[in-house]
Design a protein that fits this description.
This protein is an alpha/beta fold. Helix content is 31%, strand content 26%. It has 2 domains: 2-120 and 302-331, Quinone Oxidoreductase, Chain A, domain 1 (Alpha-Beta Complex); 122-273, NAD(P)-binding Rossmann-like Domain (Rossmann fold, 3-Layer(aba) Sandwich). The chain has helices at residues 41-46, 114-119, 121-134, 151-162, 174-182, 198-210, 229-233, 258-263, 272-278, 280-295, 312-320, and strands spanning 2-5, 16-19, 29-38, 64-72, 84-88, 97-101, 105-107, 142-146, 166-171, 187-190, 217-222, 236-244, 266-269, 303-308, 327-331. The longest helix is centred in the last third of the chain and has 16 residues, at 280-295.
Length: 333
């Protein structure tokens, strides 16, 4: 089978396609013939050695996808050969086949395409966990979402609106703002390349706060970090929850810790990867609710582009350059 190998940590363009033997399942494992795999920002980080964990090389990036069960281990009871499933992996989805524990796959109905099934688990799983478990979202909340047109950002917008919250989207361009308006956000802040100095940072904080009808946001969802974090935190309301989701804009920000005291506010870390292992039952409940909302039409994951799987390197470069809106999905022909 073909697999996109990271043979040493470094630039994305160093990834290479190789032929290797097809995997064999262990007693509790399944082999999935991959039909589609979704792109996420961690795919860009992990091959450079910049993610929270570093797999042993060689490995393939990619951690969510969908396909058909090719083979099962002798103790597997949850699925059978030929079943259509979605799956989550720590890495390894940018390939023709993948091996995973039977609890890493989820049956999908015939009316859901492989592309759609591959596209929403990580983004919606992350954002649901962030908003519901870490942010304690209610329909009385007012939510600011930074990077709101990206994969996890747009999922956060979609979920927060479905749960009845007021949502303000922060984006870098008018094109991205239009996507968020189409998803029903209540207001938009277009921040361009972000604040460059202290005066611009103060002006950005004031603009963000001016969009709040509560005098400050009860939840701020931040997957971008960098120069955006401090001014965004200054727009938080009393007892607000600031959700630290990632640092897609580049730098890990520094924050004057006295701001948490003045606002009575909380900085809340969100790491969905660890949550899925440490609190697996709650994660299963989350996925069930996401699937229910999807079936009822309350959420609508956006697939902005599809690429042939062999174009994975180009797609990873694109997400690294912050050129992706919604989700990009790679397809095996």
């Amino acid at each position: 089978m073909k697999i996109l190998h990271c043979k040493e940590y470094g630039p994305v363009e160093n990834l290479v396609w190789e032929d290797i033997d097809s995997p064999e399942p262990g007693d509790n494992e399944v082999i999935v013939t991959i039909k589609a795999a979704a792109l996420n920002f961690p795919d860009y980080l992990i091959v450079q050695g910049l993610y929270q964990f570093k797999p042993e090389v060689p490995f393939a990036p990619g951690n969510e996808g969908a396909g058909v069960i090719k083979k099962i281990g002798k103790n597997v009871t949850r699925v059978k050969e030929g079943d259509r499933v979605s799956f989550m992996l720590p890495y390894g989805a940018f390939a023709e086949e993948a091996c995973t524990h039977e609890f890493g796959v989820f049956p999908i109905s015939d009316d859901i395409t492989f592309e759609m099934a591959a596209s929403y688990q990580m983004a919606y799983g992350t954002s649901y966990h962030a908003l519901m478990q870490r942010g304690q979202l209610t329909d009385h909340d007012e939510v600011l979402v930074l990077g709101a047109s990206g994969g996890v950002g747009l999922a956060a917008v979609d979920i927060a609106k479905a749960k009845g919250a007021r949502v303000v989207a922060g984006v870098s361009t008018e094109e991205k703002a239009k996507i968020c308006r189409d998803y029903g956000v209540d207001d938009v802040v277009i921040y361009g390349d972000g604040p460059k100095d202290k005066d611009e940072s103060k002006a950005f904080a004031a603009e963000l706060k001016s969009k709040s009808t509560h005098g400050g946001y009860s939840i701020i969802y931040d997957p971008i970090g960098d120069c955006y974090t401090e001014p965004a935190f200054r727009s938080i309301g009393w007892k607000g929850r600031y959700l630290v989701v990632g640092f897609a804009a580049g730098q890990i920000p520094k924050l004057p810790i006295n701001l948490t005291l003045l606002k009575g506010a909380s900085l809340v870390g969100v790491f969905w990867g660890s949550f899925t292992g440490l609190e697996a039952e709650i994660n299963q409940q989350n996925i069930a609710d996401i699937n229910k909302m999807l079936a009822e039409g309350k959420i609508k994951p956006l697939i902005s582009e599809t690429f042939p799987m062999e174009k994975a390197v180009d797609a990873i470069q694109m997400i690294g350059n912050r050129k992706v809106m919604g989700k990009v999905v790679l397809i095996n022909s």
